[in-house]
Amino acid sequence: MAARKPTFNQQILIDPTPLPDSIPKVKEVGASSAPLLSAAFFIGARCKDYNDDYMQCKTVNPGKGEFECLKEGRRVTRCARSVIEDINKSCLEQFRAHWTCLENNNHQLWQCRPDEWKLNKCVFDNLKLEKVIPDQPKQSTPVHLRQKQIYAHSPVPAWEKPFIAEKSQSS
Amino acid sequence: MPQDMPPVGGYGAVQYKRNLPAHGLFRPRNLILASAGLMVYGWYQLVVGVREMNEMAREKMWARIHLIPMLQAECDRDLVRRHLADQAREKELLGENFKVYNSDRYVRPTFAAVPQHVTK
Questions:
Q1: Which family does it belong to (chain B) (predicted)?
Q2: Which of A12, A139, B40, B95 has its CA 20 to 30 A from that of A38?
């Protein structure tokens, strides 16, 4: 029997039954879209292996992945949660500035470069996570490191400088 | 009877050529060069803009790619929870679980049964 009666009365059609005890619990990420977009590349940097594991599990279990991949899914969620928590712990101010800017600018990343550079610097200094866009064409500046954002509403102020991590400078 | 005849020595030359001297800033060569320059500048700006847009699209796409496993995992957990609750409820009401689809794949629920008449 389900642990709790579903509240299927005629107005509320929500099934609040929790997962059975045989499946371990995990706390959900619980962030909305702007913070997630702001932290996406850091989540990708730290959780790449877990994400790949999960997606591979979904691929090799077509039609049953929802049940077979619960363990990998929990790992993915735990990892993403840890990233958000760490950013909140060490870079709350910059994080909040960036995702507020995204929220106010229709989630257009190019409108918020100065805030993004500050966040990237703080995250790199504290968490050693770096924003890298894969498959960058050779001999071109990554789009998030360009001083001139030609599609932005207002030009980037001259005193705001892109944050380039030392590691990528040397290589 | 005298007839009209050409004057002695023939008619004078008819001026059919225009006489517009090409001089100053707007001579044809300058106009063509200026249009070509404008065209090149415009195409250059367009190419720069399209490339920047491609790069930004790639950035957005990768941001999404990094997030998808997390979002999908959360969604899957919820689906599994509701599926198991459904199965338990079905077992409780009907005594056994009927196989609805002729397949072992998990099928996302499309329909939900809602009451026809809303009573108090």
A1: Belongs to the complex I NDUFA13 subunit family.
A2: A139
Q: Which residues of chain A have pLDDT under 50?
A: 1, 169-171
For every one of its 120 residues, what pLDDT tens digit does chain B have, with 9 covering 90 and above? 778 888 888 888 888 888 777 778 888 899 999 999 999 999 999 999 999 999 999 999 999 999 999 999 999 999 999 999 889 988 998 999 888 889 889 988 877 766 677 766
Model pLDDT, residue A1: 43
Q: How far apart are CA A130 and CA A142, in angstroms?
A: 13
**Residue A2 covered by a domain:** no
> Are the beta carbons of B115 and A36 separated by less than 8 Å?
no
> CB distance A143–B112 less than 8 Å?
no
Within-domain flag for A11? no
Using CA atoms, how far apart are residues B19 and A48, in angstroms rounded to an integer? 76
Rg (CA), chain B: 42
Give the total number of structural domains in chain A. 1
Residue from A82, A87, A150 nearest A121 by CA: A87
CB contact (8 A) between residue B63 and residue A72: no
What pLDDT does B113 receive?
Answer: 67
CB A102 within 8 A of CB A34: yes
- Roughly how many angstroms between the first and final C-alpha of chain A, as a whole number? 60
Nearest to A43 among B49, B70, B84 (CB): B70
B60 chain-A contacts, CB cut-off 8 A: 109
Nearest CB among A6, A50, A140 relative to B85 is that of A6
Nearest CA in chain B to A9: B115
Confidence at residue B109, expressed as pLDDT on a 0 to 100 scale: 81
